[in-house]
Amino acid sequence: VHGADNRFRCVIAGRRWGKSLCAAKEIERYMMLPNKMIWIVAPNYELSDKVFKMVWKHLVIENKVPMRRKSERDRFMITEWGSELHGKSADAPDSCLGEGVDFLVLDEFSKFTKRIWEQYLRPTLSDKKGKMLAISTPDGYNWAYDLYLRGKSPKHLDWKSFQSPSWVN
Asked: Bigger pLDDT: 131 or 96?
């Protein structure tokens, strides 16, 4: 997953596989670059906390990365060099309006509706040609499965998909 440079990456893997840690490490890489806007969007704020707190622990607590502003409670941090991380909820889609995003993590994206992806999240990546990492446990053959299939098709070169069962961890 980390070695793929495709614009859109999907990871469908079983529970306890390490999807959240994978996403946190991708976010940390973007946070070290100047002036990047990074979002974690999960079905609710409680789930967005999971990845956000991993990044918080590694950057703020353990490595004391210099921050201009930060709030664990409000799920945001802004580095001294202008990169921002925000935890958001698909349950509050209006909070996902109006900004361009350089890197977007969709956590448990199979629990979102197709409308949230198409109307609120996908447009945030357009102007900056932002990248996306979508992670989820399997949830049947829904719209998220269709996105996953794009990454398996040779027609969609911007997409790459990965799948793994829990027992591989």
From this structure: 131
